[in-house]
């Protein structure tokens, strides 16, 4: 029987939240414990004690980002429980395109790409898990007859590819108007 992870202490939770805010502002690429600890009012030694290692802290930060992203995507994909893939994609894109979500989405893009090139350690499995997360959100919005078919799986995979591609382009260019038009064009094809 697998053991449950111990409940984090109040201090560990507090420092994780502070480290998460730091990561949203500064990214994870060159994360160094000393500047992070100084910025969040701790010490590298305390962070190592609470998280076990730098990789343990990175894993906690990635899980924190993933859980926030999934909760937000789930809410964005289901306001009023839209039925159908096209309405879900439209709601998700509106959420993705919102400027206030860019820090989280930049952090997601950084973690996703690192997971592709560093398939072990703290980054292990992050990209695959987020693909499954996003596909799950889209599947939940499909009617059962579509969700459970090969065509339904292909349609949500295509929708995810469009959303991800548009998101990466948006993060690179900030050209929200052009990308929204492209997503809307794809939505029209999804409705056929």
TrEMBL record:
Keywords attached to this entry: DNA-binding, Transcription, Transcription regulation
Listed GO MF terms: DNA-binding transcription factor activity; transcription cis-regulatory region binding
InterPro entries: Homeodomain-like_sf, HTH-type_TetR-like_transc_reg, HTH_TetR
Pfam families: TetR_N
Domain HTH tetR-type: 9-69
Protein name as annotated: TetR family transcriptional regulator
Gene3D superfamilies the record matches: Tetracycline Repressor, domain 2
DNA-binding region residue numbers: 32-51
Origin species: Streptomyces nodosus
